[in-house]
Amino acid sequence: xxxxxxxxxxxxxxxxxxxxxxxxxxxxxxxxxxxxxxxxxxxxxxxxxxxxxxxxxxxxxxxxxxxxxxxxxxxxxxxxxxxxxxxxxxxxxxxxxxxxxxxxxxxxxxxxxxxxxxxxxxxxxxxxxxxxxxxxxxxxxxxxxxxxxxxxxxxxxxxxxxxxxxxxxxxxxxxxxxxxxxxxxxxxxxxxxxxxxxxxxxxxxxxxxx
Length: 210
Prior knowledge:
Enzyme class: transferase
Family: Belongs to the purine/pyrimidine phosphoribosyltransferase family. PyrE subfamily.
InterPro entries: OPRT (IPR023031), Or_phspho_trans_dom (IPR004467), PRTase-like (IPR029057), PRTase_dom (IPR000836)
Distance between the termini: 36 Å
Subunit structure: Homodimer.
Order of helices and strands: HEEEEHEHEEEHEHEHH
Function: Catalyzes the transfer of a ribosyl phosphate group from 5-phosphoribose 1-diphosphate to orotate, leading to the formation of orotidine monophosphate (OMP).
Low-confidence stretches: none
Strand order of the largest sheet: 7-6-5-8-9-10
Helix content: 40-55%
């Protein structure tokens, strides 16, 4: 999987889905000062990249969650990838809204979900895990057995490890923050000193840059 980690990291950098600016950081909506900005929604516009991601996620899920019975997409960014993966694995597809509809039947889960079905949720990105774990909670409330989460990329934040452990849900990603910054350094996109600066952010994002 190490080769796949590097390949996906290269793809994300190539299409500018990930931007690294250790010396001119971004400010996230949460107020966190960050040397990285990620927009994996861009991946759906690049056929070769989205194919590599779909193939990788399908293989990852088969390896990590072989008992999966249903693929679930987390709205909105996880839905296209979940659709492609469900097609590859020949499995039913559902998707989970961020909140229930305010009209009609008020559903938060769309698609046919059988009680006790073993579901793997797909999202495009894991930061603290908050949004996908809320989706997992909603799916569980609707009768699903969420056995895991799969995503394209993880920031590898300590909060994510804590939150997923507390929820009792394992997760796996195609590539990681560590793989990405090492790939960027190998390509000459960042220097060794910038790599070290980027590494310190992951250890404590709330204190970085202050």
